Task: structure prediction
Amino acid sequence: MPYLVNKLNFSSPRWSVLSRVLAATLGGYILATASSFFISQLLMTSVGKYQAIHIGLMLTFIVYACVAMWVFSVKTATKAWLGLLKLSISFVVATWLLMQFNGVAS
Amino acid sequence: MKDNFRQSMKWFHTWVGLVVGWILFFMFLTGSLGYFYQEITRWMEPERPFVVQQISTEELLDTAQIYLEKHAEGADGWDIMLPNIRDQNLRVGWRHPAEPGKKRGKYKIKVLDVNTGDKVERRATGGGRLLYRMHYRLHYLSTNISYWIVGFCSMLMLLAVITGVVIHKKIFTDFFTFRAKKGLPGWLDIHNVLSVIALPFHFMITYSGLLFFLFTYMVLSTNLQTNEDEYREMRKEIYPRTVHLDKTNQAAKMLDISFLYQQAKTTWQASELSYVEMFAANDVNAHALFVRHETDITYNPDDEITVNAVTGEIILSKHKQYTVAAMIHNGFFSLHEGQFSGPVARWVYFFTGLIGSAMIASGLILWTTKRKPKQMKKTNGPDFGYRLVEQLNIGTIVGLPIAIAMYFYANRLLPLDMANRINWEANVMFISWAILLIYPMFRPAAKAWYEQLQLATLVYIGLPLVNALTTDKHLFNSLNKQDWNLAGFDLTLLLVGGCFAFAAYKFKTLQISKRANNDREIEKQTNRPVQVANESLLPLQQVNKEKC
Amino acid sequence: MLVLTSLSFSIMVLFCLAMTKHREQVLESEVSMLAVRFFRPFAWLLLLFTGYLSVDMYGWSIGPALLFGALTIATLLLILLLTYRAKIVPELAIVLSLIASMSIFIA
Result:
């Protein structure tokens, strides 16, 4: 087993790249989804439910692109994961607060 | 990742582009051909008659109606597609009533010979439609898997476009800079120029491409925010449809469609009519929808007129209501498809699409050019990864155009009564591509480039000849009959062939001059590094050529 | 569309002449710095006019889309000419803009 671990060599930059790729694809997707909740809640009262959701969805690709770029620009992969986690949670919390404020069940 | 933002973005741009570059090239090239899919289909169905000029719309409508009354009995709806600048044949279509257990009935489409009023027997072919569908349907894979692969590639393309702008330091000062003869910088310039001049197009086409399957890709978000009914409601709001009356099964005598058209066209100019849809034909509820050529990127209610087919009154139907977001969404679709464009604008679209393909190709070639000096010095020869990229480059950048030509050859040469003929046309294309991808494995890169360029020349120049030998719709006849779509197709093939010939010639001469340079270098016994410049320029010329 | 492309070409030539390195490439004689200073503002003005023209000819939605297409094609043409036939750029720009303005007045 230690032999295998040695062979995998977790400190190699390859693992960092793999970790970032996962962060960008999966983490980015989750964050983009979370951002779409937030945007739609933000716009819900002014433009109506369906249009708000629609706008949120259309913007996800832009959010996703920014997130992916950001993931590959920070110093370490761990930092990228933590950042994604923080942002996703803030979006979800902000969405929840907005939902309370809007007072509509969604 | 790297020390500063621009450095890490540069790294990111390189790898994002490389990973899916070949699929993107495929998508861009087949997508660009899609701008001419009707013209391609027309060429691939040589049984259709030549253009017949000067027939009034009313006469055409009568011909179509007579045919439909006779052959489309029991069909709920009819379509009449009038000859236009893109497809100069009269076509009719109808949908049979759904069989029990099925959601929709079979749809049939026939091309009519306006002289006889009868249908034209056409060969089975995938046509331009199958070719352009490949750019998002990828042919062999199942629909869902294709959409996800295409979406993934498009997302990476979007990233490549954005990071490309970020890392391009001198986007304005180098706006017009193109140093043709300086090797690696030359390649970089070409990649930059092709990217920058069509940047609005690249962004638009990628982003709108993603919007096409918005609800597929963002399924998690949609599912969490809406239940099934709400989802249906939302889609109705985003893709509004006009509601049409259904059949009542009470037969009624319809007026002539040409007469209805007289009623409808009051506000339109002549020859603007694009197609007619008849709903609930020969029923009390029968009504015809006249649609003219698109005059707007967004929805223009004046483009459609509905007429009651029994009484001949214009029905003031409620216009489709678009929300602002839906209008933007729909506008992106129109921009992507370019259905609104006239002949010149269509060529611009096609050409810009080719610029996109060439941009991707030049990026891929840039990757190998940059690494070439280092790889060539390795004692065991270049790395596996490097060789793989080079092979894929050769097999895709020159190989794919050849494979597409093979699709056209298959159309002309496969036996007409062959079973699964449509599938085989596509199979021929993909088999040829596979061969051309494998072939460079057994040849030195420079030789493989040169040979495939020659082959490309041969197949493109040969295609009009094969056309002349197998059909009567060849260049001589089409020019004589002034059928510009048909003639244009053959002429374009010759032009593309010529471009490949030029690229091959250029490749060879630069190859020779490079070798001469090398010899001189060796004679001089200097230690200067061998220039990769010229040699790398060659494939690039070819990429430029492809745009022709 | 051809009018738009011709005008786009002239616009891009003006932008290009405003840059010293390209001016040297294209023009044989020296141009006074005063004139050069007017190239860029003039190019923007012409771009504005072409934008207006495109909307006037094709409507507010199709017009701008075609303008972008025209700019792309014109720039590609200019870049290729700059590399291979730089000297004919000014003449071509003048001829094209003449043709364009003529066809505007006729139409």
Remarks:
- The radius of gyration of chain B is 27 Å.
- Residues 526-548 of chain B have pLDDT under 50 and may be disordered.
- Residues 5-44+132-212+337-546 of chain B form one domain.
- DSSP finds 19 helices and eight strands in chain B.
